[in-house]
Amino acid sequence: MELDAYLARIAYRGGLAPDLATLSSIVGRQAEAIPFEAIDVLLGKSIDIDLAAVCDKLIAQRRGGYCFEQNGLLQSALTALGFSVTARLARVLWMRPAEAVPAQATHMALVVRIAGRDYLVDAGFGNGTPTAPLAFDTAEAQATPLETFRLRASGDGHVLDMRTGGNWSPVYEILAGTAAPGDLAKANLFTSTHPDSRFRRDLMLARATTDARFLLLGNRLMTRPARGNAEVRSLDGPEALGDAFRTVFGLDVRPEWSGLLARFAPATRPAPEPHA
Question: Lower CB count within 10 Å: N or C terminus of the chain?
Answer without folding.
Answer: C
